[in-house]
Design a protein that fits this description.
By secondary structure, the chain is α+β, with helices and mostly antiparallel strands. The chain is built from 5 helices and 5 strands; from the N terminus they run H-E-E-H-H-E-H-E-E-H. It is globular.
Length: 158
């Protein structure tokens, strides 16, 4: 699987950039592209699924504040209206997750469970768009966009 995001439209790409921009400076440890865009199977009608990795010790109140800040950003940023105009399914689905997975009892004949699917989507089949890193001795800043470093983004786009 490629570690380079493959967006079906430039609107999807711009919406993903807006999610990364929203995340910088907040208590977010990583921004992961998941599901169809991460697997390079998205179509112009696809939604944009993103998972934000947060500290497992983040208090519920802070988590709720993050969720509210995202809702305000989503409602106010025109790039998300552009995405919604592509199809009735084209939306940003943003999940906050803390990186902890708890297995549940499994029905032997039931196929994959939510535990397996979540690990697959967020670990095996995700594309990191941004993560927090230790401050760089060269650049002196703590966060960096993985898309600039490993996914080939440059001044002309992705």
């Amino acid at each position: 699987m490629s570690m380079k995001p493959e967006f079906p439209t430039s609107v999807h790409r711009h919406a993903a950039e807006a999610v990364v921009d929203f995340s910088i400076g907040l208590p977010i440890q990583a921004v992961l592209l998941v599901n169809s865009c991460a697997r390079a199977t998205a179509t112009p009608e696809s939604d944009l699924d993103v998972a934000l990795l947060i500290d497992p010790e983040m208090p519920d109140k802070e988590r709720q504040s993050l969720d509210q800040a995202w809702r305000r950003r989503y409602e106010s940023d025109s790039v998300f209206r552009e995405l919604e105009r592509l199809s009735r399914f084209a939306r940003v689905h943003l999940d906050l997750f803390d990186g902890r997975w708890v297995p549940e009892p499994w029905d032997e004949g039931g196929g994959p469970d939510a535990f397996e699917i979540e690990i697959g989507n967020r670990v095996a089949h995700s594309v990191p768009l941004w993560e927090v890193a230790a401050p760089s001795p060269i650049f002196g800043r703590a966060g960096y966009r993985i898309t600039e470093r490993t996914c080939g983004r440059n001044a002309s786009g992705w």
